[in-house]
Amino acid sequence: MASPVKPLTQPAAAPATRAKSGTDLIRIEGGEALNGDIGISGAKNSALILMCAALLTEDTMRFTNMPTTLRDIATLTKVLESLGATIATGPEGTMAIQARNIKSTKADYDLVKEMRASFLVMGPLLTRFKEATVSMPGGCAIGTRPIDFHLMGFEAMGAQITLEEGYVRVTAPGGLKGADITFPRVSVGATENIMMAAALASGVTHIFNAACEPEIVDLGRCLIAMGAKIEGLGTSTITVTGVPSLRGAMHQVVADRIETGTYMIAVAMAGGKVRLKNASAEHLQALVGPLKTAGVRIEEDDGDVIVERAGPLKEGTNIVTEVHPGFPTDLQAQFMTLLTQCRNGGTITETIWENRFMHVPELARMGAKIAIDGNTATIAGAQNLTGARVMATDLRASAALVLAALVAKGTTTIDRIYHLDRGYENLEVKLKACGAKIERIPAGAP
Ligand code: UD1
């Protein structure tokens, strides 16, 4: 029998670096090179789904390398606790979740509106408890972000779906049944939701045109450790053979490839040499190529990645965001700031989200020259950026502004830092340790 969750050292709580009122600022004095070590955290986009997967078992799930201080993790902690799960965090990214005594299968608007990933509780709740009611999701304002593929998959598995006052209610009184599901386009979230639902369904589910992002593979590995039967991870066809129940397991969250990529671009822009610890460039080949073209040296060394730029920045590369292993949409904004510094600039075509150039007007305030035509941005190179007061608009856009500020002349103050706190652990601490002149100004400080 599973042991109840023992608090490790403290209950999951507001992280130390979290914005108190959402109005913390970050102030950066540009012009310093980066030299030193940066520890890479566990992947946010993996961690959130793994937490949802804990709803699939009565037993305790134990995670390591969880980015426990992120605001998104705190938000999902509240969602899971509202359902009746018990969550405890410990030092160095340990987290234990027990979902034995689930008292509700309804995820409320107030919590779900904060973050789209909350919608991923639907698959686990539906398959284990035969019903779930989840508010339509919110999250970053980077597009319409529909959920039709998720619902199409549940329906194919025998679920009834109703929409009631902003909530999606799904029921499957006889339990979910395996099905063949073909997604019209690759969706990370829908692939994850269906994988989790299929793990406890009766029969076999084939997911065609499945996502093959590293976070999908991480989820699959965790589910397999829990006793699930899954084949085809990392390919576009995933086969899940349902089992009657899943057990507790230990799982280490994969390193955050987007955080890794963001700091690679930071070094490319600011110059210097940084060792990114517990990181991998394996899943970042679409970024590594353009960085090398720009004159950056990248080397894997014993579980770390070393990034160095000694000479001047060279050519930019035109990029198109694509599903993995293409260029990740989550690094597009950061790469755009790099292109402002490359000799000849470049273009970025965004194919995943239609509204993901909100950082452009803010970068323009710092002197960047960027023209947008539909879903393509043309970025003029070799620009001298200057410090300004700017506003973060979404998670990755905030990171782009930090990167621009690192090379801008003078002081940049970035408002609405709560976006950054959703997805980067201790960003200002990590950059400061490498020589950046960066500080967080708490809300209300003079
Ligand atoms: C997407 C990105 C992911 C990124 C995250 C946050 C891809 C394939 N996915 O994941 O890398 O970390 O945003 O920026 O790059 N769609 C539908 N109906 C659905 C679900 C999705 O039409 O039910 C469409 C979306 O509008 C979008 C595309 O499919 O154009 C990919 O969406 P999806 O992968 O599901 O989004 P996320 O899981 O949020």
DSSP summary, beta strand count: 25
Task: Supply Rg.
Answer: 22 Å
Mean pLDDT across all residues, rounded? 92
- Identify the bound ligands: uridine-diphosphate-N-acetylglucosamine
Low-confidence stretches: 1-22
- Reading side by side through the largest sheet, how are the strands ordered? 1-5-6-4-15
Family: Belongs to the EPSP synthase family. MurA subfamily.
EC number: 2.5.1.7
Function: Cell wall formation. Adds enolpyruvyl to UDP-N-acetylglucosamine.
Pathway: Cell wall biogenesis; peptidoglycan biosynthesis
What does it look like?
It comes from Micavibrio aeruginosavorus. Keywords: Cell cycle, Cell division, Cell shape, Cell wall biogenesis/degradation, Cytoplasm, Peptidoglycan synthesis, Pyruvate, Transferase. Cell wall formation. Adds enolpyruvyl to UDP-N-acetylglucosamine. Belongs to the EPSP synthase family. MurA subfamily. One of its GO terms (biological process) is UDP-N-acetylgalactosamine biosynthetic process. The longest helix is centred in the middle third of the chain and has 14 residues, at 257-270. The protein is built from 14 helices and 25 strands. Helix 5 packs parallel to helix 6 (188-199) and helix 6 runs parallel beside helix 7. Strand 17 (297-301) and strand 18 form a beta hairpin. It is an alpha+beta fold. The protein has two domains: 25-40 and 255-441, UDP-n-acetylglucosamine1-carboxyvinyl-transferase, Chain (Alpha-beta prism); 44-252, UDP-n-acetylglucosamine1-carboxyvinyl-transferase, Chain (Alpha-beta prism), CATH 3.65.10. Strands 1-5-6-4-15 form a five-stranded mixed β-sheet, with helices on one face. A four-stranded mixed β-sheet has the order 23-24-2-25. The structure holds uridine-diphosphate-N-acetylglucosamine. Uridine-diphosphate-N-acetylglucosamine binds next to helix 5 and helix 6. Uridine-diphosphate-N-acetylglucosamine is lined by residues 45, 116, 143, 145-150, 185-190, 211, 213, 323, 328-330, 352.
